[in-house]
Amino acid sequence: MSVDETEPAAVGELPGRRRVAVLAVGVVFWAWLLARWASHNAVLDRLFNALGAPGLIRSEVPVRNREPWLSPEPFASAADGVASLGLPEVATGWLVWLLDIVAFAIESAPALAEGAYVTVYLTVASMLLGLAIAIPLSVARVYGGAVLSRLSLAYTELIRGTPLLAQLFLLYYGLPLAGAIDSVDLVGSGSIPGAAVFVAIVGFTINSSAYQSEYIRSALQSVDEDQLVAARSVGLSKWAGIRHVVLPQGLRYAIPGWTNEFVYLIKYSSLAAFITVLDLFGRADVIASDTFRTTEIYVIVAVFYLALVLTTALAMERVATAVSIPGVGQHDGDR
Amino acid sequence: MSLLRFEDVSKSYGDEEVLHDVTFELDAGDVEVIVGPSGSGKSTLLRCVNRLTEIDGGAIYLDGADVHAMDENALRRRVGMVFQDFNLFAHRTARGNVTLGLTEVLGLSEREAAERADQYLQRVGVADQADSYPAELSGGQKQRVGIARALAMDPDLMLFDEPTSALDPELVGEVLGVMRDLADDGMTMLAVTHEMGFARSVASRLTFLENGRIVERGSPERLFEQPDHDRTREFLGELTDLHR
């Protein structure tokens, strides 16, 4: 596949040197993130303790007091130094701002890493649970007959037609769901997150199941119907034909749309902050109100989201290639 | 007793009657070729046999049993079908296309199914392509896989719905060759095809269908040489000219 220079290229399609640079940045980011999680995460804390490496983790230290691994000092004093040179503002203003924001990013990084952990598992859990619901929903929509397909359509339209934030508020403040979850002893103790996170997962699962089912529905409809006729002609039941012939192809066709939804959900998951979840956005909010450096922290948190999104897009490209079959889906004729 | 019997079969789509009081029967080992202009009801007639289409009137009997009293999946495993556009499962290899029915319908293990699939792929001459996906096969190879898929179920009867119409002319021969071999082995076949060479040399009977009615039915020699109806002479003449 040749890439037109004027077209925006996916990371996987970038030419050699740029691709290596992008991947190197990605590897450093993820190595840092994983190490950070490992050293401050209660789940991993137990794991390391069980493996006989206690002390590696300091999960008892409050997130806001956790120390960054790099010192922000050199950047902060460099910024001060440049500013004190007395050169015209136009010439050095940008450099001061940049050095300042790097120092601030280093200070905020431990808290943001904690938030990123919540964002990642919130999103991944909701996508997978949503998929488990979306598959039967979309099959019902396409093959379910009058009653089932209308029920599926009604669910999809209701969920897609109302704001996600309203859905989350309804679940968290309007229904006794949070209280019910909280009354379970384990919730909020030790490594298990509080009720808000569970409510957020329920909300995102419901919301994303509706969107995912739309992508999968249109993918199922693009599978050549005659193949189902052929399956039936050898004696497979309709449901066996759907399972063995339509779904394996339809789900492959759905990968690009599904990736889209994944990317959307990473960003929409920031709404969890509005129901008190300390995800990536929630952490940024706390820092913003502590420091009043709103612009800077939202620029920094945007870079985090960008990194998560690019990683997802790249990973899903790999998945699509790994499961591609000649003549089926987007990789038509690719090998 | 006849293997397949149509008794006053009729079928309509809305106001349009596509089959009108069709009656005929086939003995085991017979090869019946059906010809007719497009829209004459040929494909519908085939699809009624394995109930991909349900009839409105009359009855169809397979080996003496009314097909409408049978479980449709049980019926279909006894009737193989080959399609004009192959309808291969795009996500499965040639072997995988054959094994699906064997494992899911006949309950064979994956290994038994693969062995049996390979035998049938060998028989239709595409053993070397067993691991290829449909997109990697030529039209003729695809259709032979389609035949192997139907044949591996060990059916009592094979239905062919214009099996060579979607093929490039140079690929028609390999598919007709497989069908000829099948006929020689005694398979009962009901084929919609406009390959008049095949009809003349292989068919035991030729049926001319027009507007949902059987205009004339008889041995290929008689229909070609001295048909009762001028319309039959005219239609077969056109077909033969077309394929010369």
Largest interface: A-B, 24 and 28 residues
Low-confidence segments of chain B, given as residue ranges, are none
Q: Report the order of strands and helices of chain A.
A: HHHHHHHHHHHHH
Radius of gyration of chain A: 24 Å
Q: Write out the CATH superfamily name of chain B.
A: P-loop containing nucleotide triphosphate hydrolases
Indicate the proportion of strand residues of chain B: 15-25%
CATH homologous superfamily heading of the largest domain in chain A = MetI-like
Number of strands of chain A: 0
- How many separate domains of chain A? 2
Helical content class of chain A: over 70%
The average pLDDT of chain B is 93
The number of domains of chain B: 1
CATH hierarchy, class of chain B: Alpha Beta
Q: Mind telling me the C-alpha Rg of chain B?
A: 18 Å
Mean pLDDT across every amino acid position of chain A: 86
Helix content percent band of chain B: 25-40%
Q: Care to count the β-strands of chain B?
A: 10
Helix/strand order of chain B, N-terminal first = EEEHEEHEHHHEHEHEEHH
Spatial strand order of the main sheet of chain B: 6-7-8-3-9-10
Subcellular location (chain A): Cell membrane
GO molecular function (chain A): transmembrane transporter activity
Keywords (chain A): Amino-acid transport, Cell membrane, Membrane, Transmembrane, Transmembrane helix, Transport
Protein name (chain A): ABC-type amino acid transport system, permease component
Please give a structural write-up.
Chain A has 335 residues and is mostly helical. Chain A has helices at residues 16-40, 42-50, 73-84, 89-143, 145-160, 164-174, 177-182, 195-221, 225-233, 238-253, 255-268, 280-291, 294-322. The termini of chain A are close together. Helices cover 39% and strands 24% of the residues of chain B. Chain B has one domain: P-loop containing nucleotide triphosphate hydrolases (Rossmann fold). The N and C termini of chain B lie far apart (39 Å). In chain B, helix 4 (110-123) crosses helix 5 (139-151) and helix 5 runs parallel beside helix 6 (169-184). Chain B has a 6-stranded mixed β-sheet with strand order 6-7-8-3-9-10, with helices on both faces. In chain B, strands 2-1-4-5 form a 4-stranded antiparallel β-sheet, with helices on one face. With 244 residues, chain B is of the alpha/beta class. The A-B interface holds A 224, 226-227, 229-237, 240, 244-245, 248-249, 252, 325-328, 332-333 and B 50, 52, 73-74, 76-77, 79-81, 83, 85, 87-91, 100-101, 104-105, 133-136, 146, 149-150, 153. Chain A: This is ABC-type amino acid transport system, permease component.
